[in-house]
């Protein structure tokens, strides 16, 4: 197992001071992800999917439960340890791309390598090679607002990939794309899984997108259950 999640619980304190109530959002969640799998988590808006992803990635501490990634217990990390582990192990893809508007496509993809301290020459080679691989060479000097939605999502996928993370978390990666572009992005994810053995955890409200995964879990009011997918043999 690459990721093992055991009995995660999480509540949010909501409401006015003195009248707060504790609202449980994740209830006894357990699941696992094998090396090289594409696993999807599907569920309606508000069911707790993004909260689970934030906890998996260490942005948020669970109230209880344990997360083990690559034989390391990550749920006990402090903020600095979480940040370091993320930089070494995770890439992220979001619905709204979250590209830096003041940086070109090339510079957006380059940014994580700068954060890791790689030198300029090595960065340039690596970014150029990857941009070619995902079909972005011709637009590498464009700013995000000069790119289509599909191109922006390709840039954000390249940015997620540039540090060679073993795991990519995607939160509604096709949520703001038309259906044709959605297919392209899903095919790119499949290709990256096949050719680079990257493990994907994809969160979506869309059953069709979820069913493209190797395995699928459904989130309903903070409870997670596994369901079969049509393409599983
Ligand atoms: P999903 O991603 O499935 O749409 P979320 O995980 O974003 O669901 O939200 C699950 C529930 O938790 C929702 O009811 C939402 O309002 C609540 N919630 C999410 N983040 C917070 C927060 N920071 N404070 C309070 N409630 C939150
Ligand atoms: Mg969400």
UniProtKB/TrEMBL annotation:
<dbReference type="GO" id="GO:0005886">
    <property type="term" value="C:plasma membrane"/>
</dbReference>
<keyword id="KW-0067">ATP-binding</keyword>
<keyword id="KW-0547">Nucleotide-binding</keyword>
<dbReference type="InterPro" id="IPR017871">
    <property type="entry name" value="ABC_transporter-like_CS"/>
</dbReference>
<dbReference type="Pfam" id="PF00005">
    <property type="entry name" value="ABC_tran"/>
</dbReference>
<protein>
    <submittedName>
        <fullName>ABC superfamily ATP binding cassette transporter, ABC protein</fullName>
        <ecNumber>3.6.3.-</ecNumber>
    </submittedName>
</protein>
<keyword id="KW-0378">Hydrolase</keyword>
<dbReference type="InterPro" id="IPR003593">
    <property type="entry name" value="AAA+_ATPase"/>
</dbReference>
<dbReference type="GO" id="GO:0005524">
    <property type="term" value="F:ATP binding"/>
</dbReference>
<feature type="domain" description="ABC transporter">
    <location>
        <begin position="3"/>
        <end position="233"/>
    </location>
</feature>
<dbReference type="InterPro" id="IPR027417">
    <property type="entry name" value="P-loop_NTPase"/>
</dbReference>
<dbReference type="InterPro" id="IPR015854">
    <property type="entry name" value="ABC_transpr_LolD-like"/>
</dbReference>
<dbReference type="InterPro" id="IPR017911">
    <property type="entry name" value="MacB-like_ATP-bd"/>
</dbReference>
<keyword id="KW-0813">Transport</keyword>
<dbReference type="GO" id="GO:0022857">
    <property type="term" value="F:transmembrane transporter activity"/>
</dbReference>
<dbReference type="GO" id="GO:0098796">
    <property type="term" value="C:membrane protein complex"/>
</dbReference>
<dbReference type="InterPro" id="IPR003439">
    <property type="entry name" value="ABC_transporter-like_ATP-bd"/>
</dbReference>
<dbReference type="GO" id="GO:0016887">
    <property type="term" value="F:ATP hydrolysis activity"/>
</dbReference>
